[in-house]
Amino acid sequence: MSQRKGAMAAVTSSKHEEEMMELRRGPWTLEEDNLLMNYIACHGEGRWNLLARCSGLKRTGKSCRLRWLNYLKPDIKRGNLTPEEQLLILELHSKWGNRWSRIAQHLPGRTDNEIKNYWRTRVQKQARQLRVDANSAVFRDAVRCYWMPRLLEKMAATSAAQQVDPAALLHPAHIAAGVGGGAASPPVHGGQHDATSAPPGSGYGGHHQSYAVDPSPSTSTSGCSGSTPAAALPPVPCFSELSWVVDQYGPYADLDGAGAFDSSALGSLGLDGLDLGPADGDVYPDSTLLDYLNSACTGGGAMVTMMGGGGNAALSSCGGAIMGGHDGDYGPSSWRTDELCQAAARKLGDHHQWGGGI
DNA sequence: AAATCCGACAACCGCATCGGA
DNA sequence: TTCCGATGCGGTTGTCGGATT
After folding, report:
1. Where are the compositionally biased (Low complexity) regions (predicted)?
2. Does the global pTM surpass 0.70?
């Protein structure tokens, strides 16, 4: 009985101990970061639970590890991802999927968390705008045939002075070597995370990295290969319903506001929800599938020319933006009519099959 | 000027895997 | 072989600041 009492007391005591420990959660304070950095400086990384217990931090080992690996580690690179890094992420993700840690190994200074966030906030956003699944073949092709070439262009523009061949970055050997992220670069601070002020280093500030003011324990603030875009175009569906576009308007159909193209005809095909591009006053992101489609217009196939103008209003008012315009300009854009079919296929969804010759 | 929305990112959580006892 | 703690990974959430209404 007394033994049992003793056991009960021990349990109570240990519970009390846990309560006294009351683990902190949420944003890290400057003091906590210093504690963690100092401890690691003395004892090295690893043994995170031991670290958590011995360092005086009221955090879990997991939390300490994450804080160190994602933020405090000296070689962490900050600032926006460079086009090279973005390209690598797209390329490696197409190979490995959501293997963030593995992808991060090829981007020195970047963490899996950062890459994962990039994918979710940038890439998946694009997929949403295109109304396709980010893991779908359609989207992968769009990335490969449109986004990657754009990045290559950016890289070419910015690296011309450095005499770097951007396409070479995609060479398997290059990737295998883990090159591409500017490995040798010192930590970069810029963008929203300008953290001239952020640790490691000292600073604090950055977008979200202002420290919690009150470190009180009770506070819980829970916190085609890229170089050959056309080669990997998705299969082109053949829609007999739309063949009239070519028949009637020839290889180049005008979708501008001049009235040459009767957009209401699309309605009769059940395509009235099809958004063909910018209407008057519409503001579109500068990177859209329309650019991709245009970039694909290298071979045969009829073209649909579209002027950003009132003529599109009826169309674009119907659906969300499947397509968008060029960088701030609503000048002429071209659609290959078979690509138009493709967009239509997306809109029609279940009723038609990709690449099937209907 | 205030309210609301949205993007970006830090941090947490649950699960899987690994390695030592 | 099994158990258990430590660690790693990927998904998700919470929070904040800037943009928009």
Report:
1. 215-227
2. no
